[in-house]
Each structure stands twice: as C-alpha cells, then as structure tokens.
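User: Can you predict the 3D structure for this chain?
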Amino acid sequence: MKTKILASLITATLLSVSSMSAFATEPAPQRDTIVSVNGAKSYADSYSKAQLEIELLKQTLQKNQLQDQIRQIKEKETKASLEAQDKANQKKWDEEKKELIEKYEAKLSALSENSDESENKSSNVSIKSKMDKVFVTRISAIGGQMKAKVYVDNSIATKGIGDTVIEGVKIVGINKDGIVIAHNDYRKFIQITTISRAQFKSFEQNEVIDVQDKSGINNQMMRTDFPQSSPFPTPVPGVQ
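Assistant: Here is the predicted structure, written as structure tokens:
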C-alpha cells in the first residue's frame, strides 16, 4: 500500500516538474516584458526543490520495495521451517506409535502364551490325576492278543492295545506285569494288582479329592466378607 502511494506521489511530482520544464522552454511572447532576476532565481529554487523531492520519493520507494522483498523471503523461510518442524514431529510420533504398538502386541502374545501354557498344564494335571485312577487286575491272552482287565471308578472292562481307558488316555503296551497308558507324550506304567486293592486305592483317592474340594469351599467362605451385626440395637428416630 505504501509503495503504491509513493509511486503516485512520484508520478504527480514528475508531471509537475515536466510542466515547469515545458513552461521554461516555451518561447517568450514578443512583449516588452522584462523578467526580473529575483523571479528567475525563485523559479530555479522551486525546480531544484522538486527534483530533490523526486529523489527522496524514489529512495523511499526503493526502500519500501526492498522491505517488501525481505518480508516475503522471511515469510517463505518461516513457512518452510514450520513445514519441516511439522514433518519432524509427525515422523517422531509415527515412530513412537509404532514402538507402542509393538510393545502392546508383544505383551498380548506373552499373555496368550502364558494362558495356553497354563491351560495345558491344568489339562495335563487333570489327565494325570485321572490316570492315577486306572488299575489292572488281570492280564490274559485272547486269540493270540494280550488283553487286560482295567478297573476305573468301580467299573471293570477288558481292553487291548489301542483301546481308550479314559477320555484322552489309551493303552499303548501290555505285558505280563501290567499295561502302559499314554496321553500325548506322557506315558505311565500301571502294574497289575488285586481287585480289592484297586477298590481300596480308588476309594482312598476319591476321599482325598472330596477333602480337597471341601477345604477349597471352606477357604472361600472364610474369605467372604459378611456384614457384622452390632451387639446394640439400632436406634429408631423418635423412639426412646
């Protein structure tokens, strides 16, 4: 805005000086007029003053133009700097976000592995405890194949190699001394015994399981917070 105003002033001053110069170069009319020395000097002073004003206006205009150029350069530099800072901040945030996601996924994976491992251990413990309830009371050969009378939870059945004795447990070997039962990679040898001993051991194991279950229930009840009653009656408003 300042530059436009200064340009207008310079144009107006130049027009004024041009008109003065034209007036000075016009031939004097053929009159008997004598220009005084003082008048000529005054005219020369006005002309010099106008030229000086033009130079000052030109310098001011150049100065304002230079300031505008500097301001535009600074604005471009500032914009470029802000854009570079934004890109750097975005890159930093992307890296931090990626690191957080990797940590979160690693924790989820670890929790999943621990959960699977815990479930497998729990399953194995359950299977092993069931395998302890398997007893062999007799070994015989039927049709050239070894067979075993297997006692499980007050039930007796004749089983051969490959047969299931309890869920997930099969017989993988039979000899005159007993049988080998297996669950996945875990194997256990069951030595032949009498039916009375099998019944006693089975009864004994069931008693232990009942005691453990009752103990767990009692512990749970002891950990439960029950509301405690006050030894004194609760006062009722308005009743003494």
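The first helix runs from residue 2 to 25. Residues 10 and 54 are 6 Å apart (CA to CA).
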